[in-house]
C-alpha cells in the first residue's frame, strides 16, 4: 500500500529539472533586494533596508510569470495585501489573542483562495507569512505605519524593476506557450503514446490561459487565438490518422514531415507568429499532398485536411470567432471571485475543508507556542503554514522536502551569521546570493528551494533578534519539527483525500464528452466542447495520478479507475476523429451515434453518485457503421468496468 507513495516521495525529494533554471528572473529580483541593502549600508539605515527587503522578496515571488501586465496586477495585489498584514501584525503583536486571530483568519482566506486561482492563493500565503513574522517581532505600535510603508516601498521597487526590464524580457504573451505546443505536437506525431497526448492537452490548456489574458492587444490576441485554433484542429487530424491504417506507406512519411515542420516552427516562432512561420518549410508536405490527391478514401481526405490546416497557419490573421471563445479564457472579475468563494463555503468542497484545516492547525500551533512559552514560537506557525497543503502528496510528500530544506536552511543561515559575526556587509552579500538562488531555482528542486528560502529568512531575522545564533538555530530546528508534526497531524485527523474526488472528476470528464458528442452531431460549436473535454481530461488524469499514490483505498478501486480512464482517453480520441470526419460520412452515422449522448450522460450520473449507483449493462447490437461501432464498443467497456467495479470505502 505504501510502496508507490514512498517511491514517489524519495523520487520527488531528489528530482530536479535544470531546464527550469531561470537566472534572468533571479537576477532581476535579487537586484530589488540589493538596492535597499546597498543604500541602507551607505546611509547607516540597515534596519530600514531590511524591512524594505521583506516587501521586495514577497513581491518578487508574486511576479514570476505571465505577461508584464498580468505580473503588474498580481504584484500590486501582493504589495497592498502584504503591507496591510505587516501593519496589522505590527499593531497586534503585543496582544497575543488579537494577533493569533488575525493569523488564523488570514490563513483561512489563503486556503479558500486556492479555489479561485493559484496566484491569489500564493499572495494569501505570502501575506499570512508576513503577518506571522511581524506579529512575532514585538514592533512598537508607533512604528506600525512606518514599517508597513517600508514594506510597501520595497514591493514598489521590485515592481519598478520588473517594468524597467520589460524591453529585455522574452515575451510571455502566449507565443512561448505556442512554441511549446508546436514541440509537443511534433512529438505526438511520431509517438502517439498516452503520456505524450496528455502533455499536448496540458500545453493547449496553458496556451489558452496565456492568450486569454486581456492585457494582450485585441489584434494580437485574435491572431494568436487563430493560430491556436488551427494547431488544435491539426491535433484532431493527427489523432484520427493515428487510428487509421488506410494511408498505407504514406502515413509514416506524412507524420515524419508534420513532425519536422512543427519542430521547425517551434524553433522559429517569435513575437509575430504570422510572419515568422515560413511557407518554404511546407514544401515537402505540399509535394506529398499532390501525390495524395490521386488517392481516394476518407483517410486520404483527412490527410489532405491536415496539410491544408498546416498550410493556412503562416497566413493566420484575425479570426472573428476567436473573440467569442476567448471570453471564456479571461481572468475572473471581482463578482466572479466573490461568487467562487461563496460557492466553496461548504465542507463538501475541498478548498473549504483545506481552509478549515489551516485555521485549526494555525490555532493549535499558536496554542502550543503559548503553553510552552517557545522563545521563537512564531517559527512553529510559519512552518505549519508552509508545510500544510490541500492534498496528501503535497503535504506529506513535498512536506518532507520542506522539512529537510528548512532544517538545512536554518543551519546554513546560522553559519553565515556566525561566520561573519559583526561584519554586516558579509551578511548582506549572503542575503543577495540566497535571494538570487531562491528565485532562479524555484522550479528546479523543491528541497534546495526550501533551504535557500529558510536561510534568507534567518538572515533577515538576524537584524531584529539579539540572541546567540546557535541558540536561535536550536529553537528554529525544534520549532520546525513541531510545526511539521502539527501539519501532518492535522492532515491525518482531517484529511482531504484525492481518491474521494476520482469518481467526480471522471464524471466531469464523461459529462463533457457527452456535450462534445452532442455538439459534433448538432454542429453547434464543437471547438468549445472540445476545449471543455480537454480541461476535464487533464483534471481527471491529474486527480487519478495523485490518488494512485495515496497509501489508502479509494471510493473506486485503483485498477478499475485506471481501466475506466483508459477507455475515456480512447473515447476522447474517437470524438476528435468524429469532429474532423466529412459531413457525408458523419450524416450516415448520426442516427446510430445519437443514443451515445444519453448513455454518456447516464454514465456520468452513475459516477457522480458512486458508490450508491451502478450502471445497467446495455443490451444492443453492434452497429454496422464503423464509427458507431467503435463508440458502442467503448461505451460498453466503460459500463462493464463500473458493473464489476469494487467500491472501496
UniProtKB/TrEMBL annotation:
Xref: InterPro entries: Memb_transporter_dom
Membrane-topology annotation of the record: Multi-pass membrane protein
Subcellular location: Cell membrane
Keyword Iron on entry: no
Occurrences of domain Integral membrane bound transporter (ranges): 366-489
Transmembrane segments annotated in the record for this chain: 33-62, 74-92, 98-116, 123-142, 358-379, 399-418, 423-442
Keyword field: Cell membrane, Membrane, Transmembrane, Transmembrane helix
Pfam families: FUSC_2 (PF13515)
A cellular-component GO term for this protein: plasma membrane
Top-level taxon in the UniProt lineage: Bacteria
PANTHER family, A to Z: MULTIDRUG RESISTANCE PROTEIN MDTO, P-HYDROXYBENZOIC ACID EFFLUX PUMP SUBUNIT-RELATED
Stated family: Belongs to the YccS/YhfK family.
Protein name, as recorded: FUSC family protein
Originating organism: Sulfobacillus harzensis
Amino acid at each position: 500500500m505504501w510502496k508507490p507513495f514512498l517511491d514517489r516521495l524519495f523520487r520527488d525529494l531528489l528530482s530536479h529539472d535544470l531546464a527550469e533554471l531561470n537566472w534572468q528572473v533571479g537576477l532581476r529580483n535579487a537586484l530589488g533586494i540589493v538596492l535597499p541593502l546597498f543604500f541602507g549600508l551607505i546611509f547607516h539605515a540597515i534596519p530600514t533596508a531590511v524591512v524594505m527587503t521583506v516587501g521586495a522578496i514577497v513581491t518578487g515571488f508574486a511576479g514570476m510569470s505571465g505577461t508584464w501586465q498580468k505580473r503588474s496586477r498580481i504584484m500590486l495585489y501582493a504589495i497592498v495585501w502584504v503591507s496591510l498584514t505587516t501593519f496589522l501584525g505590527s499593531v497586534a503583536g503585543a496582544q497575543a489573542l488579537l494577533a493569533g486571530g488575525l493569523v488564523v483568519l488570514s490563513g483561512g482566506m489563503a486556503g479558500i483562495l486556492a479555489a479561485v486561482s493559484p496566484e491569489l492563493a500564493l499572495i494569501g500565503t505570502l501575506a499570512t507569512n508576513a503577518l506571522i513574522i511581524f506579529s512575532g517581532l514585538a514592533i512598537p505600535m508607533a512604528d506600525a505605519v512606518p514599517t508597513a510603508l517600508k514594506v510597501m516601498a520595497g514591493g514598489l521597487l521590485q515592481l519598478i524593476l520588473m517594468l524597467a526590464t520589460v524591453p529585455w524580457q522574452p515575451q510571455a504573451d502566449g507565443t512561448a506557450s505556442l512554441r511549446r505546443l508546436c514541440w509537443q505536437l511534433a512529438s505526438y506525431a511520431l509517438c502517439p503514446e498516452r503520456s505524450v497526448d496528455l502533455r499536448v492537452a496540458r500545453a493547449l490548456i496553458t496556451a489558452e490561459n496565456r492568450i486569454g489574458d486581456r492585457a494582450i492587444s485585441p489584434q494580437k490576441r485574435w491572431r494568436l487565438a487563430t493560430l491556436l485554433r488551427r494547431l488544435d484542429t491539426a491535433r484532431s487530424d493527427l489523432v484520427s490518422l493515428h487510428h487509421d491504417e488506410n494511408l498505407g506507406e504514406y502515413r509514416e512519411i506524412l507524420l515524419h514531415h508534420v513532425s519536422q515542420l512543427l519542430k521547425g516552427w517551434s524553433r522559429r516562432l517569435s513575437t509575430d507568429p504570422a510572419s515568422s512561420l515560413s511557407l518554404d518549410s511546407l514544401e515537402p508536405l505540399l509535394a506529398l499532398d499532390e501525390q495524395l490527391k490521386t488517392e481516394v478514401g476518407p483517410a486520404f481526405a483527412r490527410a489532405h485536411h491536415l496539410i491544408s490546416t498546416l498550410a493556412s497557419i503562416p497566413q493566420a490573421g484575425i479570426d472573428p470567432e476567436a473573440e467569442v471563445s476567448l471570453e471564456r479564457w479571461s481572468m475572473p472579475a471581482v463578482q466572479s471571485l466573490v461568487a467562487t468563494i461563496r460557492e466553496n463555503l461548504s465542507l463538501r468542497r475541498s478548498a473549504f475543508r483545506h481552509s478549515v484545516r489551516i485555521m485549526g492547525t494555525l490555532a493549535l500551533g499558536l496554542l502550543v507556542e503559548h503553553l510552552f512559552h517557545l522563545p521563537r514560537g512564531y517559527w512553529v506557525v510559519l512552518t505549519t503554514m508552509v508545510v500544510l497543503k490541500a492534498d496528501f502528496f503535497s503535504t506529506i510528500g513535498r512536506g518532507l522536502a520542506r522539512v529537510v530544506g528548512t532544517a538545512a536552511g536554518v543551519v546554513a543561515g546560522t553559519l553565515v551569521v556566525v561566520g561573519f559575526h559583526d561584519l554586516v556587509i558579509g551578511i548582506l552579500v549572503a542575503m543577495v546570493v540566497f535571494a538570487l538562488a531562491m528565485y532562479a531555482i524555484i522550479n528546479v528542486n523543491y528541497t534546495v528551494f526550501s533551504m535557500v528560502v529558510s536561510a534568507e529568512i534567518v538572515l533577515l531575522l538576524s537584524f531584529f533578534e539579539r540572541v546567540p545564533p546557535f541558540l536561535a538555530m536550536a529553537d528554529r530546528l525544534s520549532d520546525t519539527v513541531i510545526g511539521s508534526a502539527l501539519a501532518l497531524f492535522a492532515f491525518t485527523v482531517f484529511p482531504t483525500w484525492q481518491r474521494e474526488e476520482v469518481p467526480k472528476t471522471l464524471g466531469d470528464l464523461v459529462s463533457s464528452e457527452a456535450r462534445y458528442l452532442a455538439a459534433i452531431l448538432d454542429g453547434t460549436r464543437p471547438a468549445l466542447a472540445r476545449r471543455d473535454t480537454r480541461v476535464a481530461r487533464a483534471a481527471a488524469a491529474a486527480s487519478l495520478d495523485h490518488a494512485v499514490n495515496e497509501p489508502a483505498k479509494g471510493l473506486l478501486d485503483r485498477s478499475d479507475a485506471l481501466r475506466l480512464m483508459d477507455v475515456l482517453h480512447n473515447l476522447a480520441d474517437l470524438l476528435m476523429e468524429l469532429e474532423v470526419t466529412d459531413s457525408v460520412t458523419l450524416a450516415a452515422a448520426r442516427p446510430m451515434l445519437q443514443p451515445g449522448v444519453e448513455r454518456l450522460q447516464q454514465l456520468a450520473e452513475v459516477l457522480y453518485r458512486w458508490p450508491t449507483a451502478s450502471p445497467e449493462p446495455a443490451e444492443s447490437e453492434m452497429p454496422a457503421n464503423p464509427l458507431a461501432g467503435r463508440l458502442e464498443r467503448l461505451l460498453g467497456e466503460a459500463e462493464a468496468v463500473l458493473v464489476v467495479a469494487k467500491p472501496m470505502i
